[in-house]
UniProtKB/TrEMBL annotation:
Residues 530-609 form the AMP-binding enzyme C-terminal domain. One of its GO terms (molecular function) is ATP binding. This is Acetate--CoA ligase. The keyword Ion transport does not apply. Its EC number is 6.2.1.1. Residues 70-469 form the AMP-dependent synthetase/ligase domain. One of its GO terms (biological process) is acetyl-CoA biosynthetic process from acetate. Belongs to the ATP-dependent AMP-binding enzyme family. Residues 13-68 form the Acetyl-coenzyme A synthetase N-terminal domain. InterPro entries: Ac_CoA_lig, ACAS_N, AMP-bd_C, AMP-bd_C_sf, AMP-binding_CS, AMP-dep_synth/lig_dom, ANL_N_sf.
């Protein structure tokens, strides 16, 4: 497979960027020629941000699974599409070739059909990270059903809310999932989520952990039985086929609920053609993917990162994607490095929170691990602090792997601002330059473009995007007005990201965090991320989270929750003062936290994001109204933090 649209030099980036803005129809129309269509488009782009209404490749017909699977079969049928590393390193690795993927996806599409699923139906997928999850997702896409993957760790209540919002009629799940030394009883959680549910007709259950489960007659069926039956239907004389449903370019491909770190989850809807182009284009360019490379994205498929960079991006590019069932710290904190060595991983894509947590274990887990296969490293999910960036660069990349800091959102479908590995320059803790087709703009509270730089040449503002890129969200499921309100109503004719950013004189962007995470201390606006960055620079600090709380004098005070490693002086008070000294040196006395609470963990969403909403409530003393904490990775830390409140 070749990628004629792969950018290989800074000059080419500049030229392509310019053309993408001057002539988006020509630019994306040319790129689209590299995909497989049942019918070509009438128009590349129609849009307005008022309603909003965005259409890419209107009139075109396709099926994304033909692009992710079928078109590779002739030349790459026996090449690995997915390498699956089980939770337990002693268990058998599974290598899924494109031929095998094709067969399983066809079979599962047939299973869905046998169970009454039709084009446009919503299928909720609640599974662990097993290859069958990929078959389920792609099986839905094959028959045109809308998949909605829910991370295999959300509570029954969260699932019930999402099932209701999506009006889902079908569920695919597992008896259980392995994560580290835990077994998570997925089917039992689904059973709880279904109490009182009136829409779900069928639940398909894959056996992974052999956990005893209840199976309701007429509603619950076993994956294995269904697949066996379907095998005879899709395979005749050794030839496997299940005709893919012909989809309109703008037909919805999936719904994905955002992590909910800021409130009620929104069902972000992505369409077929634009999403396919964008995930492929950004995968090939940001990671500079070369055929044969092993790409290891450590995210869960329950998050957009897994959708775009474990499944659709790599597979549409005929790539090899490593899928990992377990967690980075089990059986020990060297697990990622073992996987890199074992599977000769070339590209490693993970989150700053994972990097910081592994940093906390020191260098011991890296000793003796052969990481020489690594060529490119990436991060996503939150701003990466400089210390973590340098640790990643030095100890994982050994100073020879470009690091891509990819800024994007569930709503954007794929990377919007990022360097391209080794092609455009990196700048530690800066996401750097926009992808072709992405036009970022920084605005002030009134929506006026900020053009005035400070004495260091830096412009500061709220990050918006001026025009649609192919994978912009199309709506929020069942509530288009909510989509308009959330993203398109704050500033006229702009998509508002909710994030604040800096821009330097070279046009590089640095994301400073959510706009609502900006503190106003004695009239000074300070990003929580800036303060955290400074605290994290202090020796011994593993991770920190900063929130504001009402302060009589300053308006807002700074409350810091700090995870500390080894406290050499055994003196909390002295350590607090040491941290204040560090913050003073790094930012200045204005950013000194008023309170520092030492904690053993932070409340994080399943995607690794700190739930500041909860920390803010605790800091404000409103511990009685913490809201829904069921989406947390470890709800137990909340009790500990409440008890230790200063
Ligand atoms: P919700 O919108 O429900 O609160 P969420 O925003 O946490 O959830 P995601 O779409 O997974 O859900 O995360 C996108 C956000 O993550 C971005 O808006 C940004 O704040 C942050 N982010 C992602 N990547 C980066 C990055 N490379 N640098 C800085 N921030 C990032
Ligand atoms: Mg968000």
């Amino acid at each position: 497979m070749s990628y004629p649209y792969q950018i290989t030099s800074l000059e080419q980036y500049k030229a392509d960027y310019k053309r993408s803005v001057d002539d988006p129809d020509g630019f994306w129309g040319d790129i689209a020629e590299n995909f497989q269509w049942r019918k070509k488009w009438d128009k590349v782009l129609n849009w307005n941000f008022k309603e909003p209404k965005v259409e890419w490749f209107a009139g075109a017909k396709l099926n994304i699974t033909e692009n992710c699977i079928d078109r590779h079969l002739a030349t790459m049928g026996d090449k690995p599409a997915i390498i699956w590393e089980p939770n337990n390193p002693e268990d058998r690795v599974r290598i899924v070739t494109y031929n095998r993927l094709h067969k399983r996806v066809c079979q599962f599409a047939q299973v869905l059909k046998n169970n009454g699923v039709k084009k446009g139906d919503r299928v909720c997928i609640y599974m662990g990270m097993v290859p069958e999850l990929a078959y389920a997702v792609l099986g839905c896409a094959r028959i045109g059903a809308i998949h909605s993957v829910i991370f295999g760790g959300f509570s029954a209540q969260s699932i019930a809310d999402r099932l209701y919002d999506a009006q889902a009629e079908f569920i695919v799940t597992c008896d259980g999932a392995y994560r580290g030394n835990k077994d998570i009883p997925l089917k039992s959680v689904i059973d709880d989520a279904l109490i009182g549910n009136r829409t779900v007709k069928k639940v398909i259950v894959y056996t992974r952990t052999r956990t005893p489960v209840s199976m309701l007659k007429g509603r619950d069926v076993w994956w294995e039985d269904e697949m066996e039956h379907a095998e005879h239907q899709v395979e005749q004389n050794g030839v496997v086929s299940f005709p893919a449903e012909e989809m309109d370019a703008e037909d919805p491909l999936f719904i994905l609920y955002t992590s909910g770190s800021t409130g009620k989850p929104k069902g972000v809807v992505h369409s077929s053609a634009g999403y396919m182009l964008w995930t492929n284009y950004t995968f090939v360019n940001v990671f500079q993917y070369k055929p044969g490379d092993v790409h290891f994205c450590t995210a869960d498929i329950g998050w957009i990162t897994g959708h775009s960079y474990i499944l659709y991006g790599p597979l549409s590019a005929g790539g090899t994607s490593l899928m990992f069932e377990g967690i980075p710290t089990w059986p020990d904190a060297g697990r990622f490095w073992d996987i890199v060595e074992k599977h000769k991983v070339n590209i490693l894509y993970t989150a700053p929170t994972a990097i910081r947590s592994l940093m906390g274990f020191g260098l011991e887990p890296l000793k003796g691990k052969d990481l020489s296969s690594l060529k490119i490293l990436g991060t996503v999910g939150e701003p990466i602090n400089e210390e973590a960036w340098h640790w990643y660069d030095e100890h994982v990349g050994k100073g020879k792997c470009p690091i891509v800091d990819t800024w994007w959102q569930t709503e954007t479908g794929g990377c919007l601002i990022s360097n391209m590995a080794g092609v455009t320059p990196a700048k530690p803790s800066w996401a750097t330059l926009p992808m072709p087709g992405v036009q970022p703009i920084l605005v002030d509270e009134k929506g006026e473009e900020v053009t005035k730089a400070d004495e260091d040449g830096i412009i500061k503002g709220n990050l918006c995007i001026k025009a649609p890129w192919p994978a912009i969200l199309r709506t929020t499921y069942g509530d288009h007005e909510r989509c308009r309100q959330n993203y398109f109503a704050t500033y006229e004719n702009l998509y508002f990201t909710g994030d604040g950013a800096l821009k330097d004189a070279d046009g590089n962007f640095r994301i400073t965090g959510r706009v609502d995470d900006v503190l106003n201390v004695s009239g000074h606006r300070i990003g929580t991320a800036e303060v955290e960055n400074a605290i994290n620079m202090h020796a011994g600090v593993v991770e920190s989270a900063v929130v504001g709380y009402p302060h009589d004098v300053k308006g807002q005070g700074i409350y810091a929750y700090v995870i500390y490693g080894h406290m050499h002086n055994n003196d909390e008070e002295l350590t607090r003062k040491d941290i204040l000294q560090t913050v003073t040196r790094v930012i200045g006395p204005i950013a000194k936290p008023d309170k520092i609470q030492f904690v053993s963990g932070l409340p994080k969403t399943r995607s690794g994001k700190i739930m500041r909403r909860i920390l803010r409530k605790i800091a404000e003393g409103e511990t009685g109204s913490l809201g829904d904490t069921s989406t947390l990775l470890d709800p137990g830390v909340v009790d500990e933090i409440v008890k230790g409140k200063l």
